[in-house]
Structure formats: C-alpha cells, structure tokens
Amino acid sequence: MAVTAVSLALGILAETSLPGEAK
After folding, report:
1. Does pTM surpass 0.90?
2. What is the pLDDT of residues 1-23, one digit of tens each?
3. What SS3 string covers 1-23?
4. Which UniProt keywords apply (predicted)?
5. CA–CA separation, 3 vs 14, rounded Å?
6. How many CB atoms lie within 10 A of CB 15?
7. Which pLDDT value is given to residue 4?
8. How far apart are CA 18 and CA 6, in angstroms?
9. How far is CA 21 from its chain centroid?
C-alpha cells in the first residue's frame, strides 16, 4: 500500500528530475 505509493512517487520524481539518467 504505502510502499507502492512511495515507489510510484519516487519513480515519477526520478523520471521527471532525471529524464536522462532514469531508466
């Protein structure tokens, strides 16, 4: 639940902040 939300949030933030580094 919370873990999934955090993972999704981090994934979105990572891609938004580091579109070049994020897979």
Report:
1. no
2. 688 988 888 888 777 766 666 55
3. CHHHHHHHHHHHHHHHHCCCCCC
4. Pyruvate, Transferase
5. 16
6. 13
7. 92
8. 17
9. 12
Of residues 19, 21, 18, 15, the one with CA closest to residue 7: 15
Which two structure tokens, joined as six digits, stand for 3?
A: 């873990």
Cα 16 to chain centroid distance, Å, stands at 8
* Contact yes or no for 14/22 (Cβ under 8 A): yes
* Lookup: tokens for 11: 């994934």
9: its two tokens: 């949030």
Report residue 12: phi and psi, to 5°: -65, -45
Tokens of 15: 């891609």
